[in-house]
Design brief:
Blueprint lengths: L2 E2 L5 E2 L7 H9 L37 H24 L4 H33 L19
Antiparallel strand pairs: 1-2
Helix pairs in contact: 1-3, 2-3
Length: 144
């Protein structure tokens, strides 16, 4: 069995986990390990452990990555759609604001949860941040 380690290196201690399947399960609000249990206890708070397979989820560290990914995705979609719409219509600035601001906010709220689930699934599949069984120690600053 080969271990899948962040950065593409392989070791023979742990089995490789399916990255695509784990990310899809996480995006669908399911445990990346079993695909059965819920991943989120509330809107963006993950469960401490899966109620089906008992995989611990409390130590994930998605941090700001889901928000950054949502901004990049929606930035490309909304700006592209706005530019295409602006080129083909004669709406005033206030009408554009009334359309694009609510559309952007609602799209971000819809997209943030699946993106965070996919990030947690990626971390699980790559044995990152405690998902490999080791303690996730915070390194000291090199200048300290």
């Amino acid at each position: 069995m080969e271990q899948q380690v962040f950065g593409g290196q392989k070791k023979s201690a742990r089995p490789a986990r399916p990255v695509r399947d784990a990310m899809l399960r996480g995006a669908c609000n399911r445990c990346p390990h079993c695909g059965e249990g819920r991943l989120f206890a509330s809107f963006l708070k993950t469960v401490n452990r899966c109620e089906v397979c008992s995989e611990e989820m409390h130590h994930h560290r998605a941090d700001d990555l889901p928000a950054y990914l949502v901004v990049v995705i929606l930035g490309h979609i909304i700006v592209g759609a706005f530019m295409a719409f602006e080129a083909t219509s004669t709406l005033s600035t206030w009408q554009h604001l009334a359309i694009w601001i609510p559309l952007t906010v609602l799209s971000a709220l819809v997209l943030i949860r699946p993106v965070k689930g996919a990030v947690v699934g990626l971390q699980w599949a790559l044995y990152m941040h405690g998902f490999g069984g080791e303690e996730d120690a915070i390194e000291a600053h090199p200048e300290a």
